[in-house]
Structure formats: C-alpha cells, structure tokens
Amino acid sequence: MIILVDMDDVLADFEGEFFNRWRAQYPDKPYVALEDRTIFNIENQYPEDLRELVKSIYNAPGFCKSLKPIDGSLESVLEMQNEGHEVYICTAPLTVYENCVLEKYQWAEQHLGLEWVKKIILTRDKTLVRGDFLIDDKPEVTGAAQPVWEHILFNKAYNKNVTGKRRLATLKDWKTILTKP
Amino acid sequence: MIILVDMDDVLADFEGEFFNRWRAQYPDKPYVALEDRTIFNIENQYPEDLRELVKSIYNAPGFCKSLKPIDGSLESVLEMQNEGHEVYICTAPLTVYENCVLEKYQWAEQHLGLEWVKKIILTRDKTLVRGDFLIDDKPEVTGAAQPVWEHILFNKAYNKNVTGKRRLATLKDWKTILTKP
Description:
Two copies of one chain form a homodimer. Chain A is α/β, with parallel strands linked by helices. Chain A has helices at 14-25, 51-58, 63-66, 73-82, 97-112, 114-117, and strands spanning 2-5, 86-91, 120-123, 133-136, 150-154, 167-168.
C-alpha cells in the first residue's frame, strides 16, 4: 500500500507547540484550549485584532523545527515501512513559506533520519498525489483533482463533527485502515 | 490538462549557471562544455578527484536562487495557465537539501509571483504525482509507481540518445504535446 501521512498535527504537534508558545509569550491574552478548537486554521478562532499575532507565533523561525513528535507517530511510520508499505510524508507548506519549508526537511531528518527526507512530498494540493490512504487531520482535503486515496481523518477537536470518514485517534492503530470497510 | 513542469534545466538554467561558476571559480581546472554533457548528474562527468568541488558549486547558498530563467520558459507556463490548463512546478530537491529547498520557492516567487509558489510540488519521486504530462530533462523518470503522465523529454545534450519519447526543444512549443501521437 502507499500510505501518505500528513506532518502537522499527525506526525508533529503543531497545535500543542502553538498553544504553549502563545500562553508563554502572551499570558494575559485570551486563548483557546486545545479541546475547544473548532476551526482548522488557528487564527480564525481568535479575535480579529489578535490574528496577526497568532500567525507570528507559528511563522517564527524555528517554530516548525521545534515541534514535538506526536506520541506514537514515529514508531508507527517506521512500522508501516518495515511491514512493506510505501510511506510518504505529504505536507503543505504554510502560506508564509520562508521558515517552514526548510524546517520540515530538518524535522524529518532529525526525527526519522536522512532517508525520510527523500519521502517528503511538499505540496499545497494533496489531491494530485497518488496513494491508497492519506492520513490527515484537515476536515476536508480538496484540490484540483478527485483524490485517488481514501482520506483517513486523524482525530482533532476541530474535526470531530466531520462524518462519513474513517478515523484514527493515534497512528499506532494504523493497521485498522488496511481492512477496507 | 494537468501539466507538470520540472524546474532545473526546464524552467531554470541550472547547467548554464554551474558552467559559468565553475569556469569563473576554477579557470585552470578541466571542464565539460554544455554540448558535451552526456551524463545527467554533472559531477559524474568530472574526474573523481573533482566531484566534491563540482557539488560544492551547485550546493552553495544562493546557487538555486540565482538561476536564470530558460528562454521562453516563463511566458510558456503562463500561457499554459491562461489557456486553461493546470500547471504545476514538479521538482526534486537536491540531495544536499539545505539551500535548494527554500531557494526553489524563492525562485518561483521572484520569477512567476507568489501565486506560483502554491504550484510547487517538491518531491523526489515524481511517479507519485498525477498529471497528463511531465516535461522533464531527466532521461528516465522512475520511482515507486508506474507514472500516469507521459514523460515529455526536454532536450539537453545528456538526453539526446534517449529514444521512444516525445520531446520539446523549448517550452514555447508546448502546444505540440497536446496532440496525442
């Protein structure tokens, strides 16, 4: 099988790092707890006058590189590969690309090794990538083409109301997706 | 149609820039003229003791960003898009990814505009990308999957002996590929 795995909030804890930095840097500003996140783009759940500040957190140099691996994610992609599947990290750069592009490569090298740098597919449009499965936290993954993969929704607070898709709460359960429903 | 266009040596003059820098920086060292290039990877056509030096040229900071657009390439991809095709820049990072990854994005922004940054698909394996055509100078484009696109070979000295593929000598002639043989 070809398994495409999203990076932010599937492999790497983008939401958690944002939350920690936001609270540390702006302890007096309002915040949205992780379990209360209802909108995919973080800034859209903050008051309009704080949105640029929100974006300045995750667009900062070093942010993407510093993300902690989500529990179980690294072992799971290695396991997928060891069991003979083709695994790729399929990730979209942030709109402000200057820092994240290189840092995504550095993150993969640091946490998974240089071999995994070759498995990165950096694209804004994931519908153009071929695979059997795309494991992604984004509620709807759309683009120029009709996707050939099945979107497996990776559980997050902001996608909990999405229906009609198979889900993973953790990558450790990845084998359950292999059994077609 | 979905048209995937390679970056190095289709849109951007990687070979030319390498040659100019090599001659300027090492005027006393042997060199391979552009028309005598027979091997896709430049360093493999140089004596073994010069290969690290060759690589140090194209892996240098600023190299990828400084590449000149190949004559006609920018107008042609804009024309493809204006005529209703979906055009993507499908490009593989160099093995030493530290400089080229970000610089490829900067190159696209500088020469084509921010909108085209969103059209970059950065992948080592182009067979995983869907499209009708891939315009690429690499003699053989292989990977994990059987490609769904037709490889249109972009003429370079090092691919002149490849047979069995349709070719473009310049992107200006791109419309000729639309007529299926």
